[in-house]
Design a protein that fits this description.
7-stranded mixed beta sheet, Aminopeptidase, globular, 34% strand, alpha+beta
């Protein structure tokens, strides 16, 4: 079985992140992903994500499968909500639910996170997994000019 682990984004070579974020397959479901990724843009991105850790005590991780970088994801404050995001390499799309389950285990142990939101672009039409997890649709929201469908999952027992 594939071993999933989370490390800091700053521990991954910038070239790997840049190549990942430059994959045209990602743009189909990431309306805020614009332009090319070079060393500077990647360094700025990693610095921004590391700043979230410093400010909020939580942020996005690099995700490894059997020690190899397969993407990034984690929790970020969006207003009062802890939003969960996951951006995998296309070759790792099949690991999405396992990675999400691991991240949600983390969220359930963290008293700061009573619920998690998921902001999905309208192009994401396969939503049965969210429903099976217990996430509820809350409505559409606009971020930086792009529309997203907002779902919420309680992480604490009622």
């Amino acid at each position: 079985m594939t071993k999933i682990s989370f490390i800091r984004l700053s521990a991954v070579p910038a070239e790997e992140i840049a190549a990942h974020m430059s994959d045209p397959a990602l743009a189909a479901h990431m309306p805020l992903l614009k332009g090319s990724w070079d060393r500077k843009r990647t360094a700025d991105f990693v610095a921004m994500k590391e700043a979230r850790w410093a400010e909020d005590g939580l942020g996005h991780w690099a995700i490894l499968a059997d020690g190899a970088y397969v993407g990034w994801g984690g929790f970020q404050l969006e207003g009062p909500d802890w939003d969960f995001g996951l951006v995998l390499k296309p070759s790792a799309f099949g690991l999405g639910m396992r990675i999400t389950a691991r991240a949600l285990e983390f969220a359930r142990r963290d008293v700061r996170i009573p619920s998690v939101t998921f902001l999905l672009p309208p192009t994401r039409t396969k939503l049965a997994a969210l429903t099976r997890m217990g996430a509820r649709f809350e409505g559409d929201v606009t971020l930086d000019g792009a529309m997203f469908r907002k779902f919420r999952l309680a992480t604490t027992a009622p």
